[in-house]
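Section handout, structural biology tutorial.
Before the tutorial, make sure you can parse a SMILES string by hand: atoms, branches in parentheses, ring closures as digits. In the record below the ligand is L-homoserine, and the chain has 326 residues. In the tutorial you will relate the predicted structure tokens back to the input. Do not try to memorize them.
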Amino acid sequence: MAVYTDITEDDLIRFLAAYDVGALTSYKGIAEGVENSNFLLHTTKGSYILTLYEKRVNAEDLPFFLGLMHHLAERGLSCPLPLPRADGKLLGTLSGRPAAVITFLEGMWLRKPEAQHCREVGRALASMHIAGEGFPLKRANALSVAGWRPLWQNSEARADEVQSGLKDEIAAELAYLEDHWPKGLPEGVIHADLFPDNVFFLGDRLSGLIDFYFACNDFLAYDLAVCLNSWCFEKDGSYNITKGMALLSGYESVRRLTADEVAALPLLARGSALRFFLTRLYDWLMTPAGALVVKKDPLEYLTKIRFHRAIVSSAEYGLRREEASA
Ligand SMILES: Nc1ncnc2c1ncn2[C@@H]1O[C@H](COP(=O)(O)OP(=O)(O)OP(=O)(O)O)[C@@H](O)[C@H]1O
Ligand SMILES: N[C@@H](CCO)C(=O)O
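Predicted structure of the complex:
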């Protein structure tokens, strides 16, 4: 359960006095997520999410994340909105953490997504890329290729505790990606963490996207690679090409990939798999015993790195186009 910072009822009531949300009737910690502390609030006016921003969120980046949610919502994308305080600010402080109250998005995330859901996610991702155009703030991707080596250096010495041989394999993978990382692909605002637990559905209809706290400016196709990794593999580690085809064709029904993006997809997928491997490995090794969070398995992403390493052409992902075999 991701509640790193606890709150008291008295502090919460004082904090909520700055918002137009009515009186608090109940609240509870949310047993999901690994990054921030989240609470579900019920008040006399409705339901809200309270988020306390934790370790990986730099307070200076919060105006980017919160402003982006407004920008996307104004352009018709379904996502939660941070509520303004009486002083007009979107952020306050609670239990010593930056904190925001966010509108509650109806829906559930899918534990077992199918191909039709992958198609919906592809469409929503491309729509987000288009809706993000014109957003004036910028934020570099701290977890792209330049950020991987410092992350790796924190866990490298203990990597073989998780699996023998890991230290050498990841060192070689990282060096390869640093040397071959693509340049000059189309860029824009990306979500960067659009896993199934960040996409809500009502029945089979996608109802919205949440958790914009890794959003940044980077290659648009990198975002698609994150989704290929998080939506199109089965629990046994196998790639599901039907889901891959659905995701890619859903994306391309809204925004067509350029030939360069198609050619770069295997590398981007490798890089994205390494990024999640590295943050998971770090958390696996460094999260103190007893923390109220379910740690995620880094080895799931080692399997994906190996899969992408063997890919020769994006056609193998199910991208049915001439350029895919270029
Ligand atoms: N706006 C919202 N409306 C409804 N539920 C929400 C909303 N925001 C968060 N939640 C609930 O809180 C859970 C955790 O939220 P979120 O994914 O933002 O946390 P996180 O710690 O940043 O997670 P992650 O591990 O995905 O980075 C979600 O799975 C969902 O159940
Ligand atoms: N979506 C990430 C957690 C948030 O960074 C993962 O599954 O590793």
